[in-house]
Design a protein that fits this description.
By secondary structure, this protein is of the alpha/beta class. The chain is built from seven helices and nine strands, in the order βαβαβαββαββββααα. Helix 5 crosses helix 7 and helix 6 runs antiparallel to helix 7.
Length: 258
């Protein structure tokens, strides 16, 4: 009796991009082993697309609304059933690459896999501060996975999932200017999302959310062990809470004046 051996599952890597000319090539080099690389670009005005064209001819353009919307639009465009979603500021390590290739050769019994990230700040890995246990569901079956509709930090919800040992390298903060701009952008989305759910903003949030967040990151999440980077993360997280709470308060005030 002839035994049929299933071929290795093929993989599409999806990379969302927008003006990432300084980072995207490192990302692309780390995934060039994939069967397909799909770039979903939000109309970059720098050299991002030119760089991407050296690695793939599958470059699609789509207007950016938010991260979840962009990724949900991109997922059905993939050619293959299995998808690895990698952000432009991330790099697939050799260990993760080998683990994924081995997994796909054995017919995975899960619908998705969580991947831990090594997060870096100003040239050094951050091991605590809430960044050390960061994980994301990034390897999944195309037809089963979609991101929830949150504007910020949306995630895929799947019941049948596993965890990989290999990690992503994540270099999310390119400069302090970019960090402040990111806080401004994300705090607006988060305030709008919270306001839609509960259009009231207690003034006490402005007073208490920032110090509580600082204590949480620097003390309870052991940010103190990350040295000055831990202090910086706790301070910026506290600042982000202040800005978000202030924007929420403004939205509430403007609604009462209408």
């Amino acid at each position: 009796m002839e035994v049929k051996i299933k071929a290795q599952q093929k993989l599409t890597v999806i990379i969302p991009s927008f003006n990432e000319e300084k980072k995207i090539e490192t990302c692309l080099q780390s995934v060039r082993w994939a069967d397909e690389i799909l770039i979903v670009d939000s109309y970059s005005t720098d050299r991002t697309v030119d760089i991407a064209e050296k690695y793939t001819d599958r470059i699609l353009r789509h207007e950016y609304i938010n991260s979840a919307n962009q990724k949900n639009w991109a997922i059905p465009q993939a050619t293959y059933e299995w998808i690895l979603l990698v952000d432009s500021d991330e790099k697939v390590t050799t260990e993760l690459r080998n683990e994924i290739r081995q997994l796909l050769s054995q017919q995975p019994d899960k619908d998705g896999y969580w991947i831990y990230r090594n997060n870096y700040l100003i040239g050094k890995q951050v091991k605590y501060s809430g960044w050390g246990k960061d994980s994301v569901l990034r390897l999944f079956r195309r037809d089963l996975a979609r991101y929830d509709k949150k504007r910020v930090h949306a995630e895929i919800t799947l019941k049948n999932t596993g965890v990989l040992n290999g990690r992503l390298e994540h270099h999310s903060i390119s400069s302090m200017t970019a960090w402040v701009a990111k806080i401004n952008r994300y705090s607006s989305w988060k305030a709008a999302y919270k306001f839609e759910k509960q259009p009231r903003a207690p003034v006490l949030q402005v007073l208490f959310r920032p110090p509580i967040r600082f204590i949480k990151d620097f003390i309870f999440r052991l940010g103190i062990l990350d040295g000055w980077r831990g202090f910086l993360i706790a301070s910026m997280s506290s600042f982000a809470e202040l800005v978000m709470a202030a924007k929420l308060l403004q939205l509430s005030y403007e609604k009462r004046r209408r």
